[in-house]
From TrEMBL:
Pathway: Amino-acid biosynthesis; L-lysine biosynthesis via DAP pathway; DL-2,6-diaminopimelate from LL-2,6-diaminopimelate: step 1/1. It catalyses: (2S,6S)-2,6-diaminopimelate = meso-2,6-diaminopimelate. Catalyzes the stereoinversion of LL-2,6-diaminopimelate (L,L-DAP) to meso-diaminopimelate (meso-DAP), a precursor of L-lysine and an essential component of the bacterial peptidoglycan. The record marks 153, 202 as: Could be important to modulate the pK values of the two catalytic cysteine residues. This is Diaminopimelate epimerase. Keywords: Amino-acid biosynthesis, Cytoplasm, Isomerase, Lysine biosynthesis.
Length: 266
């Protein structure tokens, strides 16, 4: 099977165009670090009846996610570079709805991708947490806030990201009963109204170097709470995601998307 390895600020994916009979089983096999290709998830290219193309995201544990911010930047570059989609502005169907990436092409190369991520939702029917106040509740002894940004996200304020217990608290919060669908967990240190640093434990994938929906959702939480302006640089372990929060509530995420290798599985 032909595979293309890509990453968005270190959040890495295996892109597959061929039809896959058992996506969950394939993800659990191929995503294993050292024993196989290694990745945070699979991105499957499929035809769409309502957009230019459809993207499916299969986490490393085999679970299927509704959306993936870093993944959709990689996916948009992939389908454009291969002529599957002929325009740098495109519509990509996901389980969370249609998202609209715009490729920033410089000297014939995709330099970055700006994605209209839609509206991070604090609406009662969307809130991923069973808490009276989704912007301020306690989970596993931590103050937290939650938002739906394609997928469930929880922000845990952290004074020092070097000592934050990401790998200990992350999985506990991910699977806490407060979250019926589980949650991604983002430990965030606010630097100023335009800058935050974050580390992420992802639902279905564990510790990742970056999380696009997480950076977007956490910027939306900080803005909603009056702690951040409407443009925020979210510093993740392997780079920076620029988030813009428009007046109409839509969020735009801009970041890189890189190729690593092309190959054939054995
Ligand atoms: N593991 C996540 C999906 C991928 C999100 C992340 N990689 C991103 O860049 O948005 C979940 O199951 O909710």
């Amino acid at each position: 099977m032909h595979i293309t390895k890509m990453h968005g600020l270190g959040n890495d994916f295996i892109v597959i165009e061929e039809r896959v009979a058992d996506p969950a089983g394939l993800a659990r096999g191929l995503c294993r670090r050292r024993l196989s290709v290694g990745a945070d998830g699979l991105l499957l290219v499929e035809p769409s009846g309502c957009a230019d193309v459809k993207m499916r995201i299969i986490n490393a544990d085999g679970s299927e996610a509704e959306m993936c911010g870093n993944g959709v930047r990689c996916f948009a570059r992939y389908v454009y570079d291969r002529g599957i989609v002929k325009t740098p502005d495109m519509a990509i169907e996901t389980l969370a709805g249609v998202v609209r990436p715009r490729l920033v092409v410089e000297n014939g190369e995709v330099a970055a991708v700006r994605v209209d991520m839609g509206v991070p939702s604090f609406a009662a029917g969307d809130i991923p947490v069973l808490a009276d106040d989704p912007l301020d509740f306690e989970v596993c002894g931590q103050r937290a806030a939650s938002v739906l940004c394609g997928v469930p996200h929880t922000l845990v304020p952290a004074g020092d990201l070097e000592t934050a217990d990401v790998d200990g608290l992350g999985p506990r919060i991910e699977k806490d009963p407060l979250f019926p669908r589980g949650t991604n967990v983002n430990f965030v240190r606010l630097i100023d109204r335009h800058t935050a640093h974050m580390r992420t434990w992802e639902r279905g994938a564990g510790r990742t170097l970056a999380c696009g929906t997480g950076a977007t959702g956490c910027a939306a939480i900080l803005h909603k709470k009056g702690l951040a302006a409407n443009e925020v640089d979210m510093h993740v372990e392997a780079g920076i995601l620029h988030i813009e929060l428009a007046q109409d509530g839509r969020a735009f995420m801009t970041g890189a998307a890189a190729y690593v290798f092309e190959g054939e599985t054995v």
